[in-house]
Amino acid sequence: MTSADCLKYLERINYTGSTSSSVEVLTKLQQLHLLNVPFENLDIHTGKKIELENTYDKIVNNHRGGFCYELNGLFFQLLTAIGFEAKLVSARAYNNKLQTFGPEFDHMAIVASIENQNYLVDVGFGEFTYSPLKLELDLLQADRAGKFMIKQYDATYLTVSKVDGNGSIPEYIFTQTRRQLNDFAVMCHYHQTNSLSHFTQKRLCSIVTGKGRITISGNILKKTENGSVIEISLTDEVEFNKALWDYFNVKL
After folding, report:
1. Minimal CA–CA distance to 94: which of 45, 139, 153?
2. Rounded to an integer, what distance in angstroms lies between the CA atom of residue 33 and that of residue 25?
3. How would you classify residue 31: left for phi > 0, otherwise alpha for psi between -120 and 50, otherwise beta?
4. Which helix (H) or strand (E) holds 147?
5. Which residues span the domain enclosing 120?
6. Which of 61, 70, 161, 219 is the most interior residue, by most CB within 10 Å?
């Protein structure tokens, strides 16, 4: 990614200021990314194949969002281009219905290293952490999205879970093994085409806001603001496309 590409990407997420490799900068980058780039699977439902080599054009030039392989893949490229030490890692998302984890490369995340401390970075998991998580076991970490903890899952994997008054719910397990973008190609294709993938079930577009989150799931628009939730049915494609533009600045 060239310096000009980086500048345009930073403009896309409304970032200004230092790009030094610090926790403060990493946190601001992640938060602004979540506030400006939606998590969405809309191309899957319009029949347009997602090509990871076209992600920059889609997200930056065409003002779209994407799912994990696109969002975290591109954010990783930005981080390394501006000088962060980072790597892509494979994660396996938890399926609450089946109470099991998905296959390897089911999800893509990022591990960044700053002053000998690793951080789990993720802008592509929908409703997840708002800030990077320090990769320290059994440490309860809180941000506006909730409380999270990373624990040792087994000899190979770590697990990141959301913690509340009822206990903890796993989000995914992951290793810190360095991966390449093309390692995720098979699962990226699977999630676009297989009827068993939750991404093929219904259209989704979701973004963090200053006071909560706005999500379109199927034909339901859900606005969460300061803990209150409003749901609106989108009765046709005209209303659906209008909501995409009004709330996400997305035009298909």
Report:
1. 153
2. 12
3. alpha
4. strand 146-152
5. 3-248
6. 70
